[in-house]
Amino acid sequence: MERLSGLDASFLYLETPNLHMHVAMAMSFDPSTVPGGYSFAKMQAQIAARTFQAPVFRRLLVEVPFRLGHPVWIDDPDFDIGYHVRRAAVPSPGGLRELGDLAGDIASRKLDRSRPLWEMWIVEGLEDGCIALIIKMHHSTVDGLSGAALLSVLFDFEPDPGPEPAPPEIVAAPLPSKSVLVSEAVAARTMRPLELTKDLVRTAQRLLDVRRVRNEPEHRSPLARAALPLSAPRTSFNGALTRRRQVALTAIGLDDVKRLKKATDSTVNDVVLAVCTGALRQLLIDGDELPDKSLVAVVPVSVQPDVGAPHGSNKVSQMFVQMPVHLDEPLDRLEAIREGTKGAKEEHHALGADTLQNWAEHATPNTFAAAARLYSRMRLADHHRPIANLIFSNVPGPDFPLYLAGAEMTSGFPLGPVMDGLGPNITIMSYRGVLYWGIIACPESMPGGWQLAAYVPGALDDLLAAAGEAPAEFRSAAAAEAVEASGIHLDLPR
User: Fold this and answer.
1) Do both 53 and 196 map to the same domain?
2) What is the side-by-side order of every strand in the sheet holding 2-3?
3) What pLDDT, in 10s, does the model give residues 312-324?
4) N or C: which terminal CB in the chain sees fewer CB atoms within 10 Å?
């Protein structure tokens, strides 16, 4: 039995009928590499065998009576692989648009908390005989980096790695009694007043450090600082959510981004943020709603907590980063992002990477969950300035091929959670020299996901041209499909 950390548990408390706190990924595969040929049964059997190597797949959530403390994980005594690994198909022509539509439909439904909090869908019917895998896992079980690490458990580095080892014999422990759950929760709460006092003192000192960093000469310019929550301009896509999700997919070349990184003395993340800013700028111009100030993005940051920090699946903090869509010139936007992210990192370091995790430990389950439901039910996100405009995340992936039951992975599009009032979640993962973009939003507040995806390669070309570089060398089929799916007319070079 393992108690959830406060941060992991917070993702459960935040969840409402319209706010689904799961992360997902849509991947395509070439089944021609499968020894002996592809079958759904073969895929399901390998995934079943690999679940023994990662306890996260067999963990069952158990709530503490009256929510007196954070829930606990136990091994599921009735684990059923047939429930978790399912079969689906997309309609003709089986392109990325059809895969995105299916991923959006799957992302529109909450996970069943009476089961381990994950599902996988083996998807058939893609063009050229390809198949896909859509994975959905609750954020309480995994963050971006640990989710990428799970790929090494599920996948192989070659098509035929040999026979699977025999699974270990697992004897599931009985469910803990209510009295045990309550007594352990009460014991855990006895230390909270002392820890709360420590966190108050520590956070006050760190806030003074952040103020000092913001007042340093090099950070006097507003664009050279971290953005502040509730400083974002309102856009049409910053509203309350329904349960529905729309997914759009695109891709650009990592080498093209690295050329820009070298030419402008930036980082890969700065360049990708600038590409995203350019695409968002065009989307806002189309809607005649370009603001006169920067958008604000919440950027998750992976952290390595100090020894003794709260345990848990999520080792993450966050920064608030400016996206200067109001600046006309692509290089001006990139320079502002480069200086702004540098300032945001310094302020984040001053605040402390573990601050979010420490304060999450003090979340009271009943109060936290009731507040989330009230906020969602009353659609309060429609009535105040946005906390931020979007969530943006860039996750490094492998630069070598991966195989699932012998099928070679050909693309991987990550998808994060969508939050009330925060517009789209744009998550990017690199794989074998390609940056795959997963854009997910509520279609009632942001119907233009495919339009945004279509503008991504053009925003990259604008940056390359402004830096005196040749146009993008990599032209992905995903980008072409995004243009077609968007319904807009773009003359992109091939």
Assistant:
1) no
2) 2-3, 72-75, 59-62
3) 566 667 889 999 9
4) C
Residues 128 and 195 in one domain: no
Integer Cα distance of 216 and 383 in angstroms: 35
Query: Could you tell me if 11 and 134 lie in one domain?
Result: yes
Together in a domain, 192 and 304 = yes
Same domain, 240 and 365: yes
Q: Is residue 405 part of a domain?
A: no
Tell me the per-residue pLDDT of 261-294, one tens digit each, with 9 for 90 and over.
Answer: 999 999 999 999 999 999 999 999 999 999 999 9
**Is residue 341 in a domain?**
yes
Rg (CA), the chain: 23
What is the per-residue burial (b if ≥16 Cβ within 10 Å, else e) of 66-95?
ebbbbbbbbebeebeeeebbeeeebeeebb
Residue type, 270: D
Q: Which of 126, 161, 196 is the last residue of a domain?
A: 161
Residue at 428: amino acid letter: I
Closest-CA residue to 99 (of 123, 128, 129, 135) = 123
Catalytic sites, residue numbers: 139
Number of domains in the chain: 2
The DSSP result for 183-201, as a single string, is HHHHHHHTTHHHHHHHHHH
- 3-state secondary structure at position 490: coil
CA atoms within 13 A on the CB side of 101: 13
The continuous run of DSSP H or E covering 356 comes out as helix 355-360
Q: Are 416 and 23 in contact (CB under 8 A)?
A: yes
Whole domain around residue 41: which residue ranges?
A: 2-161
The pLDDT tens digits for 352-402 are 656 655 555 656 677 778 888 899 999 999 989 999 999 999 988 899 999
| Pair 121, 74 in one domain | yes
3-state helix, strand, coil in the chain (%, to 5): 40, 20, 40
Q: How many CB atoms lie within 10 A of CB 445?
A: 22
**CATH code for position 333:** 3.30.559.30
pLDDT lower than 70: segments of the chain? 144-148, 168-173, 185-226, 303-316, 347-364, 489-494
CATH of the domain at 111: 3.30.559.10
Q: Distance between CA 44 and CA 87 in Å, rounded?
A: 9
Which string of DSSP letters, residue by residue, matches 9-63?
A: HHHHHT--SS---EEEEEEEEEGGGSTT---HHHHHHHHHHHGGG-GGGGEEEEP
What's the pTM?
A: 0.89
In a domain, 168, yes or no: no
Q: Is residue 494 part of a domain?
A: no
CA-nearest of 250, 254, 252 to 267 is: 254
- Asked if 23 and 142 touch (Cβ cutoff 8 Å), the reply is yes
* Same domain for 218 and 148: no
Whether residue 134 is found in the same domain as residue 263 = no
